[in-house]
């Protein structure tokens, strides 16, 4: 005759419907047949925002000069993606244009088309693909001073960070 509660801990899936059953025996029943209770728990995954750490470089470039690496030690972390891949994640970089750069003009784009992003070291942007050490980790567009990278299933956290650390800028 225990009228207390029992607590059980289990690991549920990260998303979807989880079904579990509990058998209960009524000790006051002379037959002691278990009564099966079935319940359903719907697990909704959280979506924590990614964190970009060490975004601290202030690259100096010369207009018309060689490309410069934007930040060689920045790191991206995303709790939901770090354990798998960054497939489908999008990284967007653009230069913010100050209004005084174009006095009296309406600035339609964030930056002029002369702003160009590129890769250094083992990173290249080739025919719409982002290639790191010979592995295609995503696709890209570089339009009007905005670089947009869409990562694929080959983009692990380490590869995404390597891409981020090798992006260059030139004007």
Descriptive notes:
By secondary structure, the protein is mainly β. Helix content is 5%, strand content 37%. The strands form four sheets. The protein has a five-stranded antiparallel sheet. 13% of the residues are buried. The mean pLDDT is 78.
What radius of gyration results from the CA coordinates?
26 Å
Chain-averaged pLDDT: 78
- Tell me the number of helical segments per DSSP (H or I, 4 or more residues long): 1
Q: Cα distance, first to last residue?
A: 80 Å
| Dominant shape | globular
Q: Name the beta content range.
A: 35-45%
Helix content: under 10%
- Structural category is mainly beta
Question: How many strands?
Answer: 12
* Main sheet makeup: 5 strands, antiparallel
Order of helices and strands: EEEEEEEEEEEHE
What strand order characterises the main sheet?
A: 6-11-10-9-8
Task: Indicate the low-confidence ranges by residue numbers.
Answer: none
